[in-house]
């Protein structure tokens, strides 16, 4: 048989075995469908890993607080050297004094002694007058960050409020905050959360360490003038939050009565709960948007479900938030970490934040 005939037959056999264009398109379509089916599962697996990482970070913070208490015989304060004024020295002023957060106090118990040693903690030096060479407030240790958020590389800076040694300072953002109290920041000394205006003794957590929420999550925005998440600052929304759930009828609230001896009774009045559920909510607390020193780009904040108001006052409050679907992580005083669902009962949440209201969770 001529050589060219053999070659032609071989080419015809090879052509017969090849995919047609239709077959190729069908294969591509099948692969596309499989990828589209697998992608949500992959994303869910990634989010599950991020959430576990976030839980681990909160666990580290909770254990650091416990170790701090073991060494100091008291829990860290919301401010290293807090400022109490007003009604019988019971009003917390978060925008006065050194303004160093509780995070700084527990750094040595998180294997971050070298970072802690860079801060000047003397009761008078503010967070904006720390070393101009090392600038420790600009540090972003990985333990401060929840991987579901995008806080890495974000800083709080505002020429109206952060000017200090060496010019306008920046404070790095993170994702973990403590509950100062169930109502407002300035009433946290009266209606106390675990980490409030002054260092509580552990025995003061009379509702039980396993029943009381201590640490939760916040989200950050890529807006320098937005203070939320600035971990070294003892400000509302930065390192501490408050629920804004008033005690009983509004008329018996400490902030309304001026009395430092009013017991905290979580409100159950429906008209007081217009903002429904705080975790990941549109509002900042039960009543309103996060109260910040400045609320830049309020329309953008609304779109991100992180609404805010400009309120350069001492009665600030802010909401726990995360990008985890369905809720936020929360660490209790005993060091355990739990999932706090978006549909948590608000009255129950207020009771779980206050350390001595006498109300134990029933659900």
From TrEMBL:
Domain of life: Bacteria
Residues in DUF1559 domain copies: 43-345
Protein name from the UniProt record: DUF1559 domain-containing protein
Provenance organism: Lacipirellula parvula
């Amino acid at each position: 048989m001529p050589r060219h005939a053999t070659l032609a037959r071989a080419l015809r056999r090879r052509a017969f075995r090849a995919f047609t264009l239709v077959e190729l398109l069908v294969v591509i379509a099948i692969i596309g469908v499989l990828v589209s089916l697998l992608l949500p599962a992959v994303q869910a697996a990634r989010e599950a890993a991020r959430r576990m990482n976030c839980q681990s970070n909160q666990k580290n913070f909770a254990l650091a607080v416990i170790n701090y208490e073991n060494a100091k015989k008291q829990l860290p304060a919301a401010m290293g050297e807090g400022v109490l004024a007003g009604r019988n020295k019971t009003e917390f002023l978060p925008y006065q004094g050194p303004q160093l957060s509780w995070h700084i106090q527990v750094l040595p118990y998180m294997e971050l002694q070298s970072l802690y040693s860079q801060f000047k903690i003397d009761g008078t030096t503010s967070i904006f007058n720390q070393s101009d060479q090392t600038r420790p407030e600009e540090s972003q240790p990985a333990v401060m960050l929840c991987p579901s958020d995008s806080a890495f590389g974000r800083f709080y800076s505002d020429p109206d409020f952060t000017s200090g040694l060496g010019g306008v300072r920046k404070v790095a953002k993170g994702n973990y905050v403590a509950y100062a109290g169930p109502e407002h920041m300035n009433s946290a000394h009266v209606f106390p959360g675990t980490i409030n205006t002054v260092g509580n003794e552990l025995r003061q957590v009379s509702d039980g360490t396993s029943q009381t929420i201590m640490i939760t999550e916040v989200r950050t925005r890529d807006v320098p003038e937005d203070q939320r998440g600035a971990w070294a600052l003892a400000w509302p929304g930065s390192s501490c939050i408050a629920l804004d759930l008033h005690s009983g009828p509004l008329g018996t609230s400490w902030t309304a009565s001026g009395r430092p001896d009013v017991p905290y009774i979580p409100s159950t009045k429906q008209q007081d709960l217009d903002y429904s559920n705080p975790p990941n909510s549109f509002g900042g607390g039960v009543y309103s948007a996060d109260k910040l020193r400045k609320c830049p780009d309020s329309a953008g904040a609304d779109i991100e479900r992180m609404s805010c108001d400009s309120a350069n006052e001492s009665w600030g409050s802010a909401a726990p938030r995360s990008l985890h679907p369905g809720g936020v992580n929360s660490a209790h005083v005993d060091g355990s970490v739990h999932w706090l669902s978006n549909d948590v009962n608000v009255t129950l949440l207020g009771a779980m934040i206050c350390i001595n209201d006498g109300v134990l969770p029933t659900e």
